[in-house]
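Hi team,

As requested, here is the filled-out complex form for the inosinic acid run. I kept the field names the same as last time so the parser does not choke. Let me know if anything looks off before we queue the next batch.

— J.
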Amino acid sequence: MDFVLASHNRRKIAELEAILRTFAPDQTKFRLLSLEDIGVTEEIAEGGATFEENAIIKASVPASRGYWGIADDSGLCVDALDGEPGIWSARYASINNFDAGLSADGNNNMLLLQKLKDVPLEQRTAKFVCVIAVCPPLGKADPITVRGECPGIILEAPRGTEGFGYDPLFYYEPAGKTFAELTADEKNEVSHRARALTELKEMKIIK
Ligand code: IMP
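And here is what came back:
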């Protein structure tokens, strides 16, 4: 079966693909395509109000072209900021007109540190959330969504060089490391994305 992963974020695609491939022992029956592979090059506007809505919006694009669509919407929810940046995680700095002259991830992390500057470490609890939507081709059945969450603490300074996004600030207590200090394989065992994919695996949609 052909599945199309509806994302343009290469690092995220790599993480999802590494885990998704473990679902399908017979790789000859399972083909994972990208949006580019089916000729979709434009950004998909994420106009939803929740992770679930945004994941469905993205997965519907390949589904409307006759493919099984898979998409995730993910982000960081910080308790002391009432769940911010949440669904705005990728664009946190830009929607706040904040530009420290860094990369998009760098600006987002810098803004987060500024917003939390008066919050002591024990109150800097947060979680990464990942919702994965699977949309059957041409609306033949309702989309399904699964959710994975991973708890952590937002540090006062970045640590580590692996991963992407908020990984250098996200301290994962059971490992005693930030996500950016874990290898890709280590992160894939515990991340919000892995937890959502485990739920998906149990549904046996991908065989
Ligand atoms: P999306 O592409 O709309 O789902 O945006 C997700 C955004 O949330 C990313 O651009 C990152 O800023 C953040 N994010 C999601 N998952 C992770 C992760 O595993 N590590 C670090 N940041 C993440």
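Two things worth flagging: The chain has a mean pLDDT of 92. Residues 117 and 156 are 8 Å apart (CA to CA).

Thanks,
J.
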